[in-house]
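Practice problem: Neuronal acetylcholine receptor subunit alpha-3-like
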Amino acid sequence: MKVGIAFWSLMSTVCIVDTLGGAEDIKSIFRALFDNYSTEIRPCYNYSHATDVQIYLSVSTVLELDLKRQILNFIGFFSFAWTDELLHWDPDSFHGIQVIEVPQNKIWRPDIAIYNSVNDVSYLGNENVLASISSVGLVRWEPAVNLAVTCKVDITRFPFDENICTINLTSWMHDNSTIHLTPAEEPILQDQMMPNGQYWVEAAGTMEVYSNYYGKFYKTLGFKLKFSRRPNYLIMTFLVPVTLLGVLCVVSFLLSPEEPEKVSVAITVLLSFTVFLGVVDNDLPETSDHMCLIVSYVVLLLVLSFLSVAGNAVVVVIHKRDVKRGQHSPLAFPSETNLPSLRRDKKDNSGLIIFNCVVQGKVGLPPLQPQDALQEKSEADDNDSVDEKTEDNVKVPRAYRLNKYCLILNSLALMTIITVFSILMIH
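Answer key — C-alpha cells:
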C-alpha cells in the first residue's frame, strides 16, 4: 500500500514538472531571448511608433510633510508596464511556462527619473530589482522607492490647511514621440498605506505637463497626493491657550486702579504672546507668498496686549496722581442706604451753607411748628433743585473712568479679532 502511494506521488510530481516546465526550460527561454538582446536598444520593430509605458504609484507610508523645508518624504513603489516586442515565446514549446522573472539589468527599461527630487535627479530601480516578463512580451517593473520630493505648501489656513504634493516623473532623454507615459486606470493605490497621525492622505489624480526643448516635446507625469491636516492637537495646545491669553488682556482692566498688579498681569500676558509667536515661527516656512492667518491672529493679539500694558500703566499713574491731590475712590463717597442724607439750606448772612441732617425721616433740628409748615414746603422745593445740581457735580475720579473705557474698548477689539479670524478660517 505504501509503495503504491509513493509511486503515484512520484508520477504526479513528474506530470506537474512536465506540465509547468522546470529549470532547464527556463534556461532555454533565457538563451532564446537574451542571446542577441541589447538593453540599450528600445525594443520596437517600428521606430515610428512610441513605446507606451503605463504607470501607477502605490503609497505604503507617509513619513513626513516638512512645512518648514517644504519637503515630502514617503515610502512606496512605482509599477511600470510596457510591451517589449523582442521578448516573447511560445509557451507550448516550453511546457506551458508563461511568465519569467529576470534582473532589471538584463532588459531595456525606460529612463524614468523623479524630476522634483530633493537630491540629485534620481533614476528608479537598482540591480536587485526583478522584472516579470510574460510570453506575449508584457514587461512589469516595480521598483521600490524611499523618496524626498519638493512640495509647495500653502499655510494660509494653518492648522486647517490642505496641501497637494506632486511626484513628477519624466523620461530624461526620450521625448513624447519615443516614450509615451500614461497613468493607469487607478493611478494611485492606498490600500496598503499606514494611517498618518498628522494628515488625512487622499489620492488627487494625476497631471500632465509638456515642455518644449530644442523643438521636442517632453512629457512630465505628476501623481498628486492631498494632505488635510488633523487639527485637534493644535487646537487644544495652541489656539485655545492663545485665545485665553487674549481674554486676560481684558481681565486686567477688571482690577481696581488701586491694585498695582494690573500692570504685572498685562506684562505677563504680553510675554506669553511672544513665546507663542516663536512656537509658530519654528513650525512654519519663512515665506511671504501666503500670509498665515494664525500668525496675523497672534500678532493682533500681541498688539492688543501691548496696548493693554500701556493702558493699565496710564490708569495706575493717573490714580496715584489723583490720590496725591486728595481725590478718592467712588467707594469713599457716602451711600444713601446707610448714611444720613444731606440737604442744603439757604446761605446765611455770613455766606455759609447750612445743612439739615435727616435720618429715617427725623430731622436733626427741633420739630417744625405748624405755622412753619408752609415755609418749609417752599424751602423743600428750592432745596430739591439745588440737590440735583450738587449730585451732577460729583464726578468719578479720572483713573476709574479711563479704566472703564479701556475695558470696553479692549473687549470690543478682542471680540472683533476672534470673529474675523473664525470667519476667515471657516471660509
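Discussion: Helices lie at 2-20, 23-34, 232-251, 261-283, 293-324, 373-393, 398-426. Students who identified this feature from the C-alpha cells alone can consider the problem solved.
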